[in-house]
# Entry
Amino acid sequence: MGRDNETRIAQFLLLGLSGKSEQEEVVFGLFLWTYMVTISGNLLIILAISCDSRLHTPMYFFLANLSSIDICFSSVTVPKALVNHVVGSKSISYVECMIQIYFFITFINMDGFLLSVMAYDRYVAICHPLHYTLMMRPRLCVLLVAMSWVITNLHALMHTLLMVQLTFCSHNTVHHFFCDPYPILKLSCSDTFINDLMVFTVGGVIFLTPFTCIVVSYVYIFSNVLKMPSARGIRKALSTCGSHLTVVSLFYGAILGVYMRPSSSYSVQDTVATVIFTVVTPLVNPFIYSLRNRDMKGALRKLILRS
# Structure
């Protein structure tokens, strides 16, 4: 391909979910509502945990971090889509797109790492209750979160640096509401073999390691729970895991269906699946953790009455 045809494009065009103006009005309203509820719901979780000393435990420390990540995750993609609709534009600059990809990869991986850390916390609480305080020391909790940040940022940086090495020619139309790495890779007129290889090797390790930790943790949890003599003890143990399992199923179910295959197979239908973990999961997390948790409901009630 000649150099004249390899001119680097300055922007991408985000067509949204439907590409039809009458449907985009409905999508805009839904996105605006979900974003406002996501921010307010997760902020309430963070405030409730911060203000109630009874919730200053490892489990709620990780939950507060998860709520913070969900706020950031939603803020990476949804606000740009809302602003573009208001100003009547579909464009996003090349630099903005690369920045969006970096933070998208960072926060989606942080979600996975935090869910795995929370699974380990539940494993220790149920399988080693007498050693819980010793094993889940505050220093260890902070270290686990800090290590997750370092790993996910390095991983996102690696993929973004590989992305900026690609050449994008005349095609700059993205059938999505944000710069999802897979649709962007499909637009490149360069060879994306290295990018796909890194997705399946390094990306696979980064993605599947937390997932494996979650599965192993729950194998031990369920094997331990089944040995409990009373049905009440079983219900109490499982009640502490129900919310977490719901979030894990919703989050990983959507991601496995979209990203665990080559970028060339990405279709417009996959954009609907991405809405689940970019918009829906951050929205429902506060409800799942608060409605199924007596301590959280009490802390939220106190916070609301105090305000």
